[in-house]
Design brief:
This protein is of the alpha/beta class. The protein has helices at 19-27, 64-76, 86-92, 110-120, 134-147, 151-173, 197-203, 222-226, 244-248, 251-258, 264-267, 287-298, 304-309, and strands at 14-16, 34-36, 54-56, 82-84, 96-100, 125-129, 180-186, 190-192, 207-208, 219-220, 234-237, 271-274, 314-316.
């Protein structure tokens, strides 16, 4: 009787070109196989010392509005937001390259990666991720595990994450209240969380406003925010790519977002700011942690244990 491997072959070389993919590779047991990552990959901490294969063309401006304008200008010119170091990619000679085509603002263009691999690494396996729902994130974990030669490990990890998600959902389902929730993933202009965020809100014990599962993030004007009907009873702000410190660098902008709005969330001070770099915006294993954080925001008394577990990852505005 043979047993399935619990770790990828030691000689397998893997490159990940976005943070969530790196976390999926590690969840599938491939941390030791990583030979290169993107410039934004920072978790698990051990990957921070690996060669970096990408770089941003946009300066990390102190202004959310400026970042948005610079990114939009590049996209309108059909230019990528990131550079790919093709020379280093060739030198590293990976067997597996994990990338995505969900969002050209989130990682290097898939077409650029595909062309580079066809030219420089004809034998490499390119794993392309495109998650818009929670279940698709788990499917991506399975796909990565298959590429690493450990499908059973991927299935086991997917089942573990689903079980943890369902445990929170079961607790929230037993609660009497389900507040109306608005999630914000960019400050200027205001973008409302889409894709998997409505599912997170539902599982955390809330009712998502504006977007439905799988939809991309819409941009709302000040007038549209003020006209929301029904108005939100709770708000979660988690700007994409921003840690808490970076979000509060624009404290005046944060406060101004809600000034004068006749929302129950404003009246009850039920507005929370969370780490949008580590959580919520990365379609990987830590979406379960994101769910726990959101549940602690929406139901602080009932989920005090999760608030303590994730202390430092979110604060009340």
């Amino acid at each position: 009787m043979t047993t399935s491997p619990t770790a990828p072959p030691a000689e397998l070389r893997v490159v990940s070109l976005l943070p969530s993919a790196t976390e999926l590779v590690c969840a599938a047991g491939g941390e030791a196989n990583l030979v290169g990552v993107s410039h934004e990959c920072d978790f698990p901490p051990a990957v921070q010392g690996l060669p970096r294969l990408t770089a941003s063309k946009v300066d990390f401006s102190p202004s959310s509005a400026r970042i948005d304008r610079d990114v939009r200008a590049l996209v309108e010119q059909v230019l990528g937001v990131y550079d790919l170091d093709v020379d280093r990619l060739r030198e590293l000679a990976p067997d597996v390259v994990v990338t995505q085509d969900l969002c050209d603002v989130c990682a290097v263009s898939f077409d650029e990666v595909r062309r580079a691999c066809e030219k420089l690494l004809p034998g490499a396996r390119v794993v392309n991720l495109h998650p818009t729902r929670w279940g698709e994130v788990l499917d991506d974990l399975r796909a990565v595990a298959v590429a690493l030669g450990v499908p059973e490990r991927g299935e086991a990890e997917a089942l573990r994450l689903r079980s943890a998600w369902e445990a929170v959902a079961a607790r929230s389902a037993a609660l009497g209240s389900r507040p109306r929730v608005l999630t914000i993933e960019w400050l200027d202009p205001v973008m409302v969380g889409g894709t998997w965020m409505p599912e997170l809100v539902e599982a955390a014990g809330g009712e998502a406003l504006v977007t439905r599962p799988g939809e991309h993030a819409p941009t709302l004007t000040r007038e549209e925010l003020a006209a929301l009907d029904p108005a939100p009873e709770a708000v979660l702000v988690k700007p994409c790519g921003f840690e808490l410190e970076r979000s509060f660098a624009e404290r005046e902008l944060l406060a101004g977002l809600f000034e004068g709005l006749d929302w129950p969330a404003v009246a009850s001070a039920s507005i929370w700011v969370a780490d949008g770099n580590a959580y919520f915006n990365r379609p990987g294993p830590r979406l379960v942690d994101s769910l726990e954080i959101l549940a602690a925001c929406l139901h602080p008394d009932e989920f005090a244990d999760l608030a303590e577990k994730h202390a430092g990852a979110f604060v009340r505005l």
